[in-house]
Amino acid sequence: MKNKSFLFISCEEAKHICDKAQYNEASFWEKFKLNLRYIWCHITRTYVNRNKKLTKTVKSSKITCLKNSEKQQLKEVFQEELENQHQ
Amino acid sequence: MSKHQLDPNKWVDRYSDYLYNFTITRVNDREVAKDLVQDTFFASLKSMKNFKGEASERTWLISILKRKIIDHYRKINSKKGKAEIRMDFKTEDDNDSNWLEERVADHQYKTAEDTLVNEELGEAIYNCLAKLPEKQATVFRMKTIEGLETETICNELGITASNLWVIIHRARIAMAECMEKNWFK
């Protein structure tokens, strides 16, 4: 039983590892266990393929965004302007 | 009654990233892009009475942003001298305004088709992102688009790492589903 859990992971765990792998935060051992499950689990396979596709798409779009702090700052300045307009 | 309505209270949340992304591909400078987005919001606020409701809120904001970018290049143009900036263009009969419109419309390093596909893809991603609950959108944006470290995000948002991964998981499922419907179909 111990040996089994050593190599096999649950579907939920596989999804979690897959999410981490999209950001290069999964260890070699985790990826190995994920790949093992990928071979025989249809649900894991579907999730991994979909997840990879999303990562690839976002990367290829080369989109950028404002930093959280910049967005907050912009919000504050704009809110002030909005209030001035209402007065 | 007009089809579209303006809601300036939600502009920053809804459109700042989209406008910023549109700008950065045209000016290649973070600070300038930030300033142009801010100027656009201010100018839009002042011209709200001119909004007829025929275009969507975002289309209207983009049209104002385009004018802001043109103004930015006009300013640079007058500072640096026209010859230096105009050298990319071969036709002699182009007038100044046409040239500026071109510059705003297409990025000089890409083909028109690449630009169009990337813009449409960016638009699809931002549309899907807008449908996520705020927290999920913020975490997904910080982790996936900004590429921030898990620890940095956790510190900034006051959440644990396991919380972050749960949020990321939900966001990724929703994003994948939305992109499947709106982009891959």
UniProtKB/TrEMBL annotation, chain A:
<protein>
    <recommendedName>
        <fullName>Glycine dehydrogenase</fullName>
    </recommendedName>
</protein>
Automatic annotation (TrEMBL), chain B:
<feature type="domain" description="RNA polymerase sigma-70 region 2">
    <location>
        <begin position="12"/>
        <end position="75"/>
    </location>
</feature>
<dbReference type="InterPro" id="IPR036388">
    <property type="entry name" value="WH-like_DNA-bd_sf"/>
</dbReference>
<dbReference type="GO" id="GO:0003677">
    <property type="term" value="F:DNA binding"/>
</dbReference>
<keyword id="KW-0805">Transcription regulation</keyword>
<keyword id="KW-0238">DNA-binding</keyword>
<dbReference type="InterPro" id="IPR013324">
    <property type="entry name" value="RNA_pol_sigma_r3/r4-like"/>
</dbReference>
<keyword id="KW-0804">Transcription</keyword>
<dbReference type="InterPro" id="IPR013325">
    <property type="entry name" value="RNA_pol_sigma_r2"/>
</dbReference>
<protein>
    <submittedName>
        <fullName>Sigma-70 family RNA polymerase sigma factor</fullName>
    </submittedName>
</protein>
<keyword id="KW-0731">Sigma factor</keyword>
<dbReference type="Pfam" id="PF04542">
    <property type="entry name" value="Sigma70_r2"/>
</dbReference>
<dbReference type="Pfam" id="PF08281">
    <property type="entry name" value="Sigma70_r4_2"/>
</dbReference>
<dbReference type="GO" id="GO:0016987">
    <property type="term" value="F:sigma factor activity"/>
</dbReference>
<dbReference type="InterPro" id="IPR007627">
    <property type="entry name" value="RNA_pol_sigma70_r2"/>
</dbReference>
<feature type="domain" description="RNA polymerase sigma factor 70 region 4 type 2">
    <location>
        <begin position="123"/>
        <end position="174"/>
    </location>
</feature>
<dbReference type="InterPro" id="IPR039425">
    <property type="entry name" value="RNA_pol_sigma-70-like"/>
</dbReference>
<dbReference type="GO" id="GO:0006352">
    <property type="term" value="P:DNA-templated transcription initiation"/>
</dbReference>
<comment type="similarity">
    <text>Belongs to the sigma-70 factor family. ECF subfamily.</text>
</comment>
<dbReference type="InterPro" id="IPR014284">
    <property type="entry name" value="RNA_pol_sigma-70_dom"/>
</dbReference>
<dbReference type="InterPro" id="IPR013249">
    <property type="entry name" value="RNA_pol_sigma70_r4_t2"/>
</dbReference>
